[in-house]
Amino acid sequence: MNRLFGSVRSRATLGATLVVAVALVVTGAAVLQALRSNLTAEAGTQAEDTARAVASELAARTPYDQLSGLGSKSGPVQVVDEDGNLVAASEDLQRISGTVTDQVEPRPSSPSPSASASPSPSAPAREVDDDEDEDEEDEDEEDEDEDTETPRSPSTPEDEESEPSLAPGETSRQTTFGSGAATMDDDTADYRFAAVDVQTHDRGLLTVSAGAPLAAEHSAVRTALTVMLIGFPLLAALVAGMTWVVTGRALRPVAGIREEMAAITASEDLKRRVPEPGTHDEIARLARTTNETLAALETSVERQRRFVADASHELRSPIASLRTQLEVAAAHPELLDLDGAVEDTVRLQHLAADLLLLARLDAGERPVDARVDLAALAREEAAGRTGVTVDAESAEVAGSRGQLARVLGNLLDNGGRHARETVSVSVRREGDWAVLAVADDGDGVAEADRERIFERFVRLDAARSRDDGGAGLGLAIARDVAVRHGGTLTAGAAPSGGALFALRLPLA
Question: Residue 502, class by beta-carbon neighbours within 10 Å (0-12 exposed, 13-18 middle, 19+ buried)?
């Protein structure tokens, strides 16, 4: 399992599938909620239309048994008076919940006080005398004493505060919605109910509750849910398969690069290169960078190999000479060439120091960050040398004083070996750079060899004996030190015809 999900291909496929799955679930839930809300609102609008139609008929003094909304083909309808009694209901209504009352059988109700106090406009006014009025008032007081129960209004106090009292024949602008169930003709279903208040002329305040079926909403939601439960897994599987195929094709060059790198490691053949795809994506850039790294590694290994071979060759001569002198001295002490032995020993010491410095430079050793005045350094190195002149202005650079002194010393030694009479040293400023130049009046360096002389163990004068010349490391060390200090070292032609070496370093 760890190996399976440890690959980029598996993780990309799993991640894409999870993202798509989450997006589908969230989108599906939002769609179902929007669908349910829209269909429920549509059913509520239908129920409100039915309730207001019945309320309009009641406001027009239509008798209960003649209301058009109470037919068997209509949805469940209830008419409740302000005492909470069911005064009219739909035909075949057997059970109901979610409305003002769960009554299904209408109950006759007595005229409300408001209705008796407000005679119908169509009824003639009845004349009564003062005695009859007093008798009726006494009877009313007795009735009020006997009946202490307060009538219950279906409207809440909040509704009374939010909407003023309705005038006779007026229907409330507010509609109360709710959900419930009803059984009509032995068929039970869910409904969306709407309740509307109406003030009648002769029957007081009535509340009409009408319901619209939610069967369409339930059916649509079930259908959409079924489609989602079937389609979403198929879509997620399709995304997973496509991601697996696409990532496999995209990562196929990576497998080729890995196989070639494994073969290069096993064969240790740094001349081989990984295949570069013809695309311009990240994998193609990775292949090119890998080949560049292999080329740099090949160059480094070849340089190291050549360096070891050259160092062994250079060390062999002084060691063999010193051994010969010691063997002769052991057999014939009177023939000991003490000066030659000392000279070979010093030469070995210098060569070992050069090799050690090159090893440190190759290892990436950074120079010490100190301020060095090239003018003062040039005067110190030129002191005691024959035929060396100095013309220098103060120029401070940052770096190792010892390594920079080694560079200047190597340049002066090289110039002294090739000069006829004089070697001149100059230090000047050029913008943000300090330029140290060493020129001699010798034969100079051919233009074709001006870069090759900076290679290790390279000496152009093949006729010169090893005792007269160095090991061919001085200029190589000088350039490496210059590069480590952020500068350059180049060879050119001096005005006098000899060689000119220019060291450029950034000013401190």
Answer: middle
- Identify whether residues 279 and 356 lie together within a single domain: yes
**One domain for residues 275 and 351:** yes
CA angle 322–326–329, rounded 5-degree value: 140
Beta carbons of 192 and 40 less than 8 angstroms apart: yes
3-state secondary structure of 190: strand
Asked if residue 128 is part of any domain, the answer here is no
Asked if residue 337 lies in contact with residue 456, where contact means CB atoms within 8 angstroms, the answer is no
- For residue 468, how many C-alpha atoms fall within 13 Å in the half-sphere facing its CB? 9
Predicted confidence pLDDT, tens digits, the chain (508 residues): 555 556 888 888 999 999 999 999 999 999 999 999 999 999 999 999 999 999 999 999 989 888 888 876 778 999 999 888 999 998 888 899 999 899 988 876 554 444 443 333 333 333 334 444 444 444 444 444 433 333 333 444 344 444 568 888 899 999 999 999 999 888 899 999 999 999 998 889 999 999 999 988 889 999 999 999 999 999 999 999 999 999 888 888 888 888 888 988 888 888 888 888 888 888 888 889 999 999 988 888 887 787 777 777 777 777 887 888 788 888 877 777 777 777 778 778 877 877 777 777 777 667 777 899 999 999 998 888 888 899 989 999 998 888 899 899 889 988 888 888 899 999 999 999 999 999 998 888 888 888 888 887 777 654 344 445 566 788 888 898 899 889 999 999 888 888 999 999 999 8
On whether both 220 and 105 belong to a single domain, the answer is: yes
The residue to which tokens 């210059």 are assigned? 482
Alpha helices (H) in 163-199, listed in sequence order: none
The answer on 192 and 171 residing in a single domain is yes
Is 115 within a domain? no
- 135 located within any domain: no
Please tell me whether residues 330 and 446 are part of one structural domain. no
- Written as six digits, the tokens of 173 are 């602008």
Segments forming the whole domain that contains residue 374: 366-506
